[in-house]
Design a protein that fits this description.
Shape: flat
CATH architecture of the largest domain: 2-Layer Sandwich
CATH superfamily of the largest domain: Histidine kinase-like ATPase, C-terminal domain
Largest sheet: 5 strands, mixed
Low-confidence stretches: 213-221
Helix content: 40-55%
Strand order of the largest sheet: 5-7-8-10-9
CATH class of the largest domain: Alpha Beta
Strand content: 25-35%
Radius of gyration: 23 Å
CATH topology of the largest domain: Heat Shock Protein 90
Order of helices and strands: EEEHHHEHEEHEEHHEE
Structural class: alpha+beta
Mean pLDDT: 82
Number of helices: 7
Length: 260
């Protein structure tokens, strides 16, 4: 729990506190309370949150201005101008997608909004697959699902699963990408498996998913794969990446079971 206390000099401090009961031979002997001063941490988090919102708001506004002006250049008679306009449009749209990814997954980083609860992962996966089929009619997207699969998942897990399926389709080098989503219920966990027949993940993306490591000079493309990992780990789940046979990638998320 967190409490706010006023100190002797009149300032207010924020504390994260935990409490334990002391017992000896079944008798209550007292209470131990341990408190950590988190005032600076919470202030730092608030400032980051404000900065994040301001940057994303300004980014969206400026990119919309850029896209508006690019439309006027796209129909230029000079082929080099038209080609440059197309590249600007593509880069601007990628930045807008990055901003939207950050907004959608903000709950993963917001301690006050961290929601983990029981979810029917089979129903959730079925919904994600149906949406993906509508969005990508040229892809072969299938699902192998049980009747139900209760698991403990973060509220952003549906977005994370959407990201895995979307990533498998759009980065495929096949004319008809194939993606299979499989959900299996085990004794203590529910496994969600996304397999594709694409070119496979490069080393940077594999590192982001497996270990959450990125060097200052090497960056994965976008936030999606990082946020998949963070969403799974927020529910005390595990993520595994393997090569598919004969080609492609298999990403498996294991979530704690939530059986009645």
């Amino acid at each position: 729990m967190e409490v706010s206390l006023r100190t002797a000099d009149g300032t207010r401090r924020q504390y994260s506190a935990g409490m334990a009961l002391l017992r000896e031979d079944g008798r209550f002997e007292g209470t131990v309370v341990v408190a950590h001063d988190v005032t600076e941490l919470r202030e730092y988090q608030r400032r980051l949150s404000v900065l994040d919102r301001v940057l994303r708001h300004n980014l969206r506004n400026k990119m919309n201005v850029v896209l508006g002006h690019v439309e006027g250049l796209a129909g230029a008679d000079d082929p080099s101008v038209a080609e440059g306009a197309a590249r600007i449009r593509e880069a601007a749209n990628e930045l807008l997608c990055l901003s939207e990814s950050a907004r959608q997954f903000e709950g993963v980083f917001d301690a006050d909004a961290r929601q983990v609860g029981a979810v029917d992962v089979a129903a959730l996966a079925g919904s994600v697959v149906e949406e993906a089929r509508l969005a990508h009619p040229g892809a072969d997207i299938s699902a192998v699902l049980p009747g139900e699969a209760p698991a403990r998942a973060h509220e952003t897990f549906e977005l994370a699963l959407e990201e895995l399926v979307e990533n498998a389709v759009v980065h495929s080098d096949r004319e008809e990408p194939r993606v299979e989503v499989t959900v299996r219920v085990g004794p203590d966990a529910v496994a969600v498996r996304v397999a594709d027949d694409g070119p496979g993940l490069d080393e940077l993306d594999r590192r982001a998913l497996c270990r959450g490591i990125e060097s200052p000079l090497e960056h994965t493309q976008g936030l999606g794969l990082w946020l998949v990992r963070w969403s799974v780990e927020s529910a005390d789940g595990e993520l595994d990446v393997a090569e598919n046979d004969p080609r492609g990638t298999v990403v498996t998320a294991r979530l704690p079971g939530a059986a009645d």
